[in-house]
Each structure stands twice: as structure tokens, then as C-alpha cells.
Amino acid sequence: MKKKILSLLLAATMIVGLAACGGKGGNSAKKSGSESGNETLVACTTGFENKFSPFFAQNVDDRTVEQMTQISMLYSDREGAPILNGMSDEGETIPFNGTDYVYHTPANIEVVENEDGSVDYNITMREDLKFSDGEPVTIDDYIFSLYVVSDPTYDGSTTLYSSPIKGMEEYRSGMSTLSVLIAEKGEDNTDFSLYTEDQQKAFWDAVNGGLTDFAQSIVDYCVEAGYAADAEDVKTAAGAWGFDLADGATAKDFAMAIGEAYGWNFSAMEKETAGTALADLMDADVYAYSTVGVSTGDSADYIEGIVRTGDYSCTISTATLDASFIYNLGIEIAPLHYYGDASKYDYDAHKFGFEKGDLSTVRAKTTEPMGAGPYKFNKVADGTVYMEANESYFKGAPKTKFLNFVETQEADKITGVQSGTLDIADPSYSSEAASQIAEINGADDLEGKVITTKLIDFRGYGYIGISADNVKVGNDPSSDASKNLRKAIATVIAAYRDEGIDSYYGETATVINYPISNTSWAAPRVTDDGYQVAYSKDVEGNDIYTSSMSADEKYDAALQAALGYFEAAGYTVEDGKLTAAPAGAKLEYEVNIGGGGQGDHPTFLILKNAADAFAKIGFTLSVNDLANASDLYQSYQTGVAEMWCAAWQSTSDPDMFQLYHSNGSTNYYKINDADLDESIMLARESTDQTYRKGLYKAAMEIIMDWGVELPVYQRSDAQIFSSERVNVSTLPGDMTPYYGWADEIQNIELN
Predict the structure, then answer these.
(1) pTM of the model
(2) pLDDT for the residue numbered 27
């Protein structure tokens, strides 16, 4: 649901991980047909949509399944950084957490930055790769895959088509989808040169019928949830959902806005559902209009920047440098002979395995994947996907012959591993879950004779945001006085983070000090020069705390440091208390938090303790615990909130543009700093990881100096394994959000 979860979710296609469990089905038996239980590894999933295509899988569990059947051209290391030289038998060695790890990949990638600003990515593949049916993997399979996701009618999740590959725009021009054409020409169109009158009527019948009903179901949901007054209050409901409509808007207006927002791609529009599937409300033929290509003019018949240089090599050229582009190279290498039509592939003749604008042969294989990955897809039945080891896998045939993914309810995850029904699960982790696991193990231990628990930092982090526009002195959010005001507030709150997070999460989360997930390669490390605890310096730049301070002494020191910041901001301080605020500032500010109205939030105790401390010096921090999460999101996304609590989920690449650049679409902090903008843009214009890390460190220091964000916590996810069934010594070491058990699935053995 739009606006329900604030995230920057861009799951790199080459990362294979365990999907979350907690879906509709129960546990299934381990044995099926000839699959012997002692040869079968069983992992839990949430639920399948049965779209297991490397091109069209959307659901996270479907992606988990299809990724087991595929290989990618690019993989990432434990920090999410691309591995560029893992093709040889020796692989590429990359240190992490004090240990050297060796990575093996299907290809080497050389990045060449040219003087004119363009970039060449020279790809050289291994020559011994095979698909699970024994057919060789060549560069033509990769080129075919590139053209599928670049086709004007492609509507999957891969966004290669939006990248600066030379000639991409020329290739995609001159063709549109039937749904876009009909929508653009309107209901009263009389020109039927590109489509028929019957097609137009069917489209608008669907818009006025099923699509409008789809939009109305969202309005009804918002009414039921208290976000809108009644079924006629479409404008308010649409606003809560993230769409800005005019006064008096109707459900059809809402439907049209959704269609335009998603380029009339009906499959993509399903994301806006309030529970009713759009596919169930529309005629199937009309629903397919968004995948029907219609030629509207001249266009290139090939992509200039994709050049075949040999049977096992190619070069992909971009017109400009984009540091995050390299992740786009990690699309999966799907077999041309299976997903396409080999008779329609002739690179020199600009034929790439299908007719441009017609991906029907690719879509026909959506439910039965095939590739060169570690496992072969056998079948899906009764909520279980059955897979068998691929003996041709380039990292070696998996040690465990069979792999099952089972739809499992949340309540069955820990007990499922305990009973032996599951071998691998990822329960929602908390202190209660930890206690349950320890009790099952018969000791206060997460790694015991029944269950082995591996804690992995979540890819995102929780923070407190402060609006520079709403918390300032005078009219200048960038003034030293405004920054000092915000740092005064952040300094006191920061002091209570350890106590609050320990109380809520126990050992399942840690306090963080920079506005970035600790899982990123760009995150500052405690051992780095210049590493600082967030807001631990006073207005003169001196350390606030000493190592010998007690907790109470620490809180008192933070309060005194805050008084210094307030005074520097122009507040009147008398006898250790604030008595007057400067023009444009106040003695009271409000922070919004989504604790369900009951304080159920990891930052709630932190804020309450900070509020009590502020009261001692004549400053009021009002903690507004909102019952409806959407009210929280809307408060800061519309620029109304002074302060708020939320969380970001990080991407593999640490690009900061969207969040912190003055033109960033989710710069809710309203930070506007030329030096920050420059650091962000310079980091985008380089592929040197060390150089970029330095720029991001400088950028984070600017963000902290503005006092617009206080990093709070990074929680842990848990993956649990049956100690009795799984040889846990064969699991990967130092698993992270970017590198989990599935990345070395070929090595995992059963006891």
C-alpha cells in the first residue's frame, strides 16, 4: 500500500536471500515422491504468486525461487559492493570483519571511464557455464536478456531501460503500448489508425467499470480506517494514499490518476490495491493492453550501447557516468533457447530472440523457470515449491540434492524448526523470540543443540527527523543559530538512545551514529579516523562525555551541553533555564511518533525521557503518539511536522540524492546545502569506492551539523537453522543482508 511503509527499496537482482515467512499456508511434509527427507533442505516462505520468471517475478518469495534457478552477470559482496573479478578459479578475495572471503562469479567486469564522460563496461564471461538442461551459456543469452528488459512493452521490475545506455532512448522510441495510446487519445477519439474502435470501447468500459471500482475500493478502505469522511470524500482518501486530486474529485478521477502515475501499466497498478486485485475487476484482454506494443513511428532496431565483442564477451556503454548503474548489469542470464526463439536471434541482423514489442514467448514461461542456477525447478503444489540440484552449477553441484520452499505461518516458524518440519526460517525477531529459542535449546543460548540462530543487521535503520523549515531561528534554516537550535534538541535525545533501545530490543538492536545503515560499505566504522558518537560534542566542539561517567552524569552533561547550544541559538538562559526564545523559534516543539497511541515504538521511551529532561530547563518536547501510521507519514511528507520518527531501508548503492540533495524527492528534512549537494553529485560521478566513501562521510557530517537527523537504531533480523538437521559449519560465515545462506547454497549439508 502506498504511504504505508517508507522505504528506499531497491533489491538488487543478483542478491539471493531468504524470503520472510508468515503467510497463509501451514507446514508441509518434507517428503514428496522420490524426494527423501534426509536429502531435502526445507525453508519457509510467505506465499507464492507462481510468477517464477527471472523477468516478471514480483513477489519476494517468487523471486527467491526463480533466483535459485538463475545466475546473474554481477554479484555483490557482504557489504553490497559489486564483485568485479571473480571469474577465475581463484575467485576474488575481499576482506570483511577481519576475515578474507573468496567470491566466485560468472564474469569479470572492467569499468573504463572515457575522457568524454562516457563509460564502457567490458564484460568477459566464463566459457564453461551451462544451463541446467546441459546447453552452454553464451553472451547471446545475456544480450537476449538485456533486450527483453529493454523492450518498450516490458513491465517487470527491472529498470535497465531508464539507465543512460547509449541508444536506449532511440530503441524504445517510436513504440507505445495499446493502453497508453488509448488513454492519451481519450474517450472521444475518432482516429482509429493505430487501434480499433472496439479496442477503444473495451478500454474505456474497463476504466469506467473495473478500474473505477478498484479506485473506489481504496476510498472505502480509507473511510473504514478513518482517513476519509465517507465514500464520496475521494479527494481526502486519495491524499492519504499519496495522490493530489482536485476538489470534488470522483472515483474515476482517482482511477485516472493511478493509471497516469503508472504509465497505464495495469500490472504495476496492482501495487495500489487495498485488497481487491485489479486483474479480477477487468477483462483479461484489456488487462493485457499494457503489454501490447504498437508502432507509432520510426525507432532504432538495436541499442547502440550494447555491443557483442565475442561469444563470451560484450561491452555496455553509457553516455554518462552513474555510479549506481553497475548494479543494472546484474540481471539474470536467462536461456535464449528456453525463454525466447533461437530462430529469431541474429545479432548482426539486429534480431534478438523475439519480435520487438512482443514478449509473448517470454511471458509463456512465467510459471516454470529454467536457468543455470544451483537448483532446477520441479513443481509447485499445495503451497510448496520442489527443486532439485543442478549438477552443472558453476560453483559446484549442491551438496543437498533437494530443496523445498514451504508457505508457513508466522506462529509455526520457530516451532517448525524445533519439530523438524522446517530446516530454515526467519522469525520476526524480538526479546520474546530470543527467549523462546533459548528455552527450546535448554539453556540461555541462541545457538544450541536444537536451533542455531544467526543475527543479521537489518538493511535499514530508525531515525528521528527534524524539519529545517519548521525548527529554526528567524527565517533562515541554514543559519548557525538554526543549526544550534536543532543540535540542542538532538543532543539531549541522543543521550537516551542506549537506554531506550536496550529496553525495547534488548540485544536485538544497536544504536547507530551516522545517517546510513551499518550494513553499507559506505558506513563509517568505529575504527575509522574521525568516528564520532552522534551529537556528543558541545557548542565549542569539546567532548560532552567521559568514559567514567555514570548514566545520570551523562544525562546531566547532555542537558548542560544543550543549554550551550540554546544560548548560541539566541535563547535567553537564566539560572540554568530557558526564559525566552529568539524570533522565529519557540520554547515548545512537537515530535510525531507512530506508537499506535500506546507507546509501542522503539523510540518512544527515548523521547519520553528526553521530554522529562527538557522540562528541567524550561523547554517542552511534546511527544505526539499517533494511532494511525498514515497520519505520521502524511505529517512529514506534506512538510507539516516539526519532528518525527521513522525508518529508512537502504539500497545496495549508498547514493544520497533522493534523501538529502536539495532537489531530492524525499528530502523531508528540507536541508539545502550547496556543499552537501556537491558531495552527493561528486559521489555519483565516480566509481572509486574509497573516494566515494570519503565523500559520503563528508556529506554525513554536513547532515549532522545541520541537526536535521538523529540516527537511532539498527535492529537485527534472525535466521534460524535446525542444529539437528543442518550441518551449521557449512553455512556462510558473517552473513549480512547482502550475503546470506542462499549465496552459498551449494555448500550446505545436512547431518
Answers:
(1) 0.78
(2) 36
